[in-house]
Amino acid sequence: MANLKxxxxxxxRLLGASLVEKGLxxxxxxxxxxxxLLELMSTDASCVQVNLLSILVGEKQAINENDLxxxxxxxxxxxxxxxxxxxxxxxxxNSLDVRACWATLTVPFDKVxxxxxxxxxxxxxxxxxTHWEEKLSGHVVWYATSVDSLTDFLEKYETAVSxxxxxxx
Length: 169
Known about the structure:
By secondary structure, the chain is α/β, with parallel strands linked by helices. The protein folds into two domains: 5-62; 79-168, Type II secretion system, protein E, N-terminal domain (GMP Synthetase, Chain A, domain 3), CATH 3.30.300. The protein has eight helices and four strands; from the N terminus they run ααααβααββαβα. It has a four-stranded mixed beta sheet with strand order 1-4-3-2, sandwiched between helices. Strand 3 (115-120), helix 7 and strand 4 form a beta-alpha-beta unit. The longest helix has 22 residues, at 147-168. The protein is globular and about 50 Å long. The two termini are 25 Å apart.
């Protein structure tokens, strides 16, 4: 986790700044959510699953996630995708960095030739986008998705990987 902490912090900090800059969240709500994020990160040893957007949407109800998704579609031209029940191609499964997915609330869900398709709840975080664009070769196509869709997918994926490993042992 230590190697992901800078990415987690930058992705969340830059997401918060973008949300305020776009007028989607007030600075006061962001400050409260940041305080809560730091609190959760200090008490959760793994903390990779802790994120600012969940706090702003769920705990603080400072932003309606549907409004955020609509903003991403209208202002950034993203498509919407629900990754909950997607079956990843083997080329992605074999190299998926689940911890980076949690840290950036982003998951690659398809690859066709040299184009990788990513679903993200953190599109407004330049740190999250840069991480994936630098990590992946070829072209990247971004889709917006909800926090629930991503977390459900990642939890199911981790459970399936654990079950497969347990079955092998």
